[in-house]
Amino acid sequence: MRKAIVLFSGGLDSTTCLAIARAEGFSPLCLAVDYGQRHAIELKAAERIATSLGAPLHILHCSLREMGGSALTSELPVPMEDFSMEKLPMEKLTVGERIPPTYVPARNTIFLALALGFAETKGAQDIFLGINAVDYSGYPDCRPEFVSAFEALARLATKAGIEGTPFHIHTPLAGLSKAQIIHKGLLLGVDYAMTHSCYAPSLCGLACGRCESCRLRKRGFLQAGVADPTKYQP
Amino acid sequence: MRKAIVLFSGGLDSTTCLAIARAEGFSPLCLAVDYGQRHAIELKAAERIATSLGAPLHILHCSLREMGGSALTSELPVPMEDFSMEKLPMEKLTVGERIPPTYVPARNTIFLALALGFAETKGAQDIFLGINAVDYSGYPDCRPEFVSAFEALARLATKAGIEGTPFHIHTPLAGLSKAQIIHKGLLLGVDYAMTHSCYAPSLCGLACGRCESCRLRKRGFLQAGVADPTKYQP
Sheet of A168-170: strands edge to edge? Predict the structure, then answer.
């Protein structure tokens, strides 16, 4: 079985991505990044899910809190408004028009760079990234053109790449709505009760229900016509 | 003055790069990465040099030791042979043919990704990277085509990029020999006695004189016709 690195946060999207990687016949190695995110509870979810699926989980420590610049890595407040792209007519939307303060500068570039190094170390050529450019927050590093540019870079950047082993970045969720992602995951047996999406959970891990990430998740279950197993704060 | 992020290790190349950034009229912010390198002593040199030049130094912690795969981030021995490209006839050389075990998988991709996030956070558009593709060890991520691919990626990856603020990666040493780099640095007042290059220093910080990095440095001073101020182990 071919190894694949799955960038894994313990959230709804990356857990679905892990299930897809496995269904496609890969032997997944999960890579989570402890980047000093305020919702560190997601790493606990990542551990629980990886353990339950018997997939090895590696956690790399890379402190983006030392960099700041985002509501997820500093004391900037997490906004409770709806920033999702769906509210705006897509034909009028220019990406970047309303990127929320939860945007972490260059986060997916950093994550993919770490995954690339990890893949090369482990002898893997495939990297799965659960980004989604339909029900998303307008982050520039979630778009297909970003992924293509990274794939081109990866060929030039590595020993393996120039030795003729191209890296493939798989983004199986890129064109799916949140509801479609949930349907796909349920077909593959994902237990969404174990996943965590909230940017501003309570100390005991209950989701706030109001941040951007909770809103996208809630709406996804609603549109999918599936009961939402998330535990929200009262 | 325009801010520039200088990826900074306290070595000969990045110190010269810092001097060039300043001479070109930029206000440099030094960024060093504590990646669990075995020669952590280079971070001490980075601190001393940045302090002496009055340039702010930021150290980000990103543990590539957790990833392994290199003699610089694991207990693999640092080789004491000469791996430099100069030994081979350039016209016959295929890059990647003899990349030494000191290659750190995806290191410059990771460093540039971190610098990109840092630049965006600090409102800088310029990043200086002291890579060199003449007297070097054949690392794939030191070549101009790698840098161009990263620049293309940076435009797509960031909020600043899609808002019309392109990032520029400056590699002023790319086409210079080590001797030319030393000449350039001396003209700009660089004190090379403060810089550290060795991959396998003694506990008190003396250079081994035999690793790839020491060999390239020594030969540089020799070819430049300049006294080598490095303190080597007896």
Answer: A57-61, A27-34, A3-7, A126-128, A168-170
